[in-house]
Amino acid sequence: MMLDAFAPTPPEWTRQAIHAYDRFCCPKCGASSLEAVQVWINRRSPVLGEDRRRKWQEFYLCHCSCAWWAWSSDRPPTVVKINC
Ligand SMILES: [Zn+2]
Question: How far is residue 39 CA from its own chain's centroid?
Fold first, then answer.
């Protein structure tokens, strides 16, 4: 299946996404965003963060079938191995 992270319309699975607000990983099983089976980034509605940098919602569909999202500004650098 083709992954289209920048599709203009949100995929169906994003509608039930949970906000992962304390850690940047699946709130159910703790898997990192790098292990997600699908990704969708809401580039259409960026928000200005406290530091005046734009941030947007990143949606992840985990392999445990849990959908979650978090702010792009909360994402740790991808070079770092995430162990939540
Ligand atoms: Zn999970």
Answer: 7
The dihedral over CA atoms of 77, 78, 82, 84, expressed in degrees to the nearest 10, equals 60
Return the ∠ at Cα 8 (arms to 19 and 81), rounded to 5°: 45
**pTM (2 d.p.):** 0.81
Residue 49 Cα, ligand 1 centroid: separation in angstroms? 27
Neighbours of ion ligand 1 (CB under 5 A): 26, 28-29, 31, 62, 64, 66
pLDDT at 1: 45
Q: Is 32 within 8 Å of 84 (Cβ atoms)?
A: yes
